[in-house]
Design a protein that fits this description.
By secondary structure, the chain is of the alpha/beta class. 46% of the residues lie in helices and 14% in strands. The chain has a six-stranded mixed sheet with strand order 3-2-7-6-5-4. The protein is globular, with a radius of gyration of 21 Å. The relative contact order is 0.15.
Length: 338
Amino acid sequence: MADLRPHEEDAGLGRLLAPRRPLHPHPGCAVTHLYSDHDQQVFNQHRNLLFSVAYRVLGTVADAEDAVQDAWIKWSAADRSQVADPKAYLARIVSNLALQRLRSTQHQRETYVGPWLPEPILTSGDTADDITSTESVSMAMLVVLETLSPLERAVFVLKEVFDFSHAEIAEAVERSEAAVRQAAHRAREHVQARRPRFAADRSRQRDATERFLAAATGGDINTLMELLSPDVTLWTDGGGKVRQALRPVVGAQTVAAWFAAIGKVAYQGVDPADMNAELVEINGGPGMVFSGLGRVVATVTFDFDADGRIITIHNVANPDKLQAVADGTTRDIGPLSS
């Protein structure tokens, strides 16, 4: 479980979130700067970038979308004639909002029932073609980012993924440039020590995922054992909403038995005959979606070792975290989105 204790360096960061207002104020509302269709087009042009930043900082779709919505509110109320670079301005706003929101959710994550995993998203092949983008949005990397302080996480995302300068980041997170440099150094060292090693090529990953899917749905424990590293670890996130393992499941034999049961017994109230398993791209890599009785039941993603065997499995079954997959939206979360 990630160390999610509050960090002193983040005390006093930012201001309170802007109060929510309708996107289209009614005639009686007092709005200092009315927005035009062009202003909305400019915002929409950078919406993917804003979501990409917020999602990597927060690890949840709903919170990231809320941060983008709040960024729109600030943008629509700002004196946009004074904004020389809308892209940088909007990125600064959403970064600050995401950072504030991350700090406000710290207690919820500390008291979460069982392991807390990021919310999975469906991604496009374009994302998978960009190694840096793929790694930065993978479930494995997002889990590592959970172990950073909110400030370190925001700084790491802006510097390492989106290539913001230290000066630009300092403005975004309302810190001195010196403080940002220190946070960037700490975050980089921390991530490098814990980041997963992406040694297996994508074709081998996809082949292993396809074989795992067939073996799990067919109850083939021997094939599952072949695909798993001896010290494989399974992390399951039910959030207390559905029954899942509250601690990591370790070892090929135990993990293989856990998945082989899917093809033989009911899982989350869905009988094997009613269960549908599909191979899809999740967070930049091959993954599986299990569904049945009109709902998404769980997602499964993998990390691979140097030999192409599965070393870590992330299984998200908390229904609150499956809406983004259930609605079928494929997201472009590359760093150059604009």
